Amino acid sequence: MKSDFFQYQAQTSPHPLAVEISHAEGSYIYDTNNKAYLDFVAGVSACSLGHRHPRVVNAIKKQLDSYLHVMVYGEYIQETAVELSKLLAKHLPASLEKTYLVNSGTEAIEGAIKLARRSTQRQEIISAHNAYHGNTLGSLSLMDFEERKAPFKPLLPRVSHIRFNNEDDLELITEKTAGVILETIQGGAGFIEPQNDYLAKVKKRCEAVGALLILDEIQPGVGRTGKLFGFENYNCIPDVLVTGKGLGGGMPIGAFTASAKLMDTLSDNPKMGHITTFGGHPVIAAAALATLQEITESDLMAEALVKEQLFRKHLKHPLITEIRGKGLMLAALTPSADITNELVLEAQNEGLILFWLLFETRAIRITPPLTISNEEIIKGCGIVIAILNKIQKRIQ
Q1: Are 120 and 294 in contact (CB under 8 A)?
Q2: Is the distance from CB of 287 to CB of 46 less than 8 angstroms?
Q3: pLDDT tens for residues 116-143?
Q4: Which of 164, 183, 285, 339 qualifies as a cystine partner to 216, CB 3.0-4.6 A?
Q5: Is the peptide bond before 157 cis (omega within 30 degrees of 0)?
Q6: Is 124 in contact with 276 (CB distance < 8 Å)?
Q7: Mean pLDDT across the stretch 278-303?
Q8: In what side-by-side order are the strands of the sheet with 21-25?
């Protein structure tokens, strides 16, 4: 299987971790030798309720018995997609009332870009330095990392960048700006939170010049920060909310939400201003609906903040220089990329799944399922500390 993996399946990097998966349950993934791996990554923030959560699995099975794909998005009334959109509206501010369901976070970003341009009749899009919003051409255009962009140029024109948390750059948002797209918490940059009411100040500037504020909640959304969406922590309501990853409960999904007035601009003049065949797929919508119901009906969001403190308590070590983030969206930083690389790889050998961040090479991603237990947190942190002790002893 491993040789076939490398021969027939396109790779995203020269050196994938290449664990051969047998099954997964709860907070654990098992390889074909039945070795258990405690999952501190949750499919890169995607498996909000862990692996094969019973409520999600049952919702999928129930929908399988009714129908699968029947028509392109938005033409037929399909219960799971309608109920998912309705439940999102119930738990969002009144101005975020209508949701367009798509297949992934990056596709939702593409839709949000189109929505900003269509509704404002402007072209300029502003994102942040060290932003990551996905890898399709439009989403890639929002990045300022030339090494990643250069091989795929030309990309979208009229994209510029501001420094996250830098209020001096707000004057760069002008009457020419269609939309400002920011991650509520910068992910690839190192899980950097907004400071000093930064997001509220961006929103005020957008309102002053007639631009839309689009917040990317693909990672922090769906309960991970102790609130259903990260913006609720920062005194700011976006014009457009983008989500994905954790909304699907382990199934592929993306969504962007705005007011009915904004969203309706995509349905006419031209008709089908945005369209997708499989967006709102009934099985995936069923999984997302069950995920959202479980998170909003349980104590998981409040528990995320308690579990954050447990991580902070048990990840104290001279080689951990800082822990960034909020709730169960955390990044532990070491003094160097080499130490981080060694820790991530050795942790896998020891049965713990950690991962990297895109731009901050010293960071260790810690984004476990919201359902992870206190005992599992302490166990995983113990593995991290033991590995760091070995590294420290060797480099002293």
Answers
A1: no
A2: no
A3: 999 999 999 999 999 999 999 999 999 9
A4: 183
A5: no
A6: no
A7: 98
A8: 21-25, 28-31, 36-39, 352-353
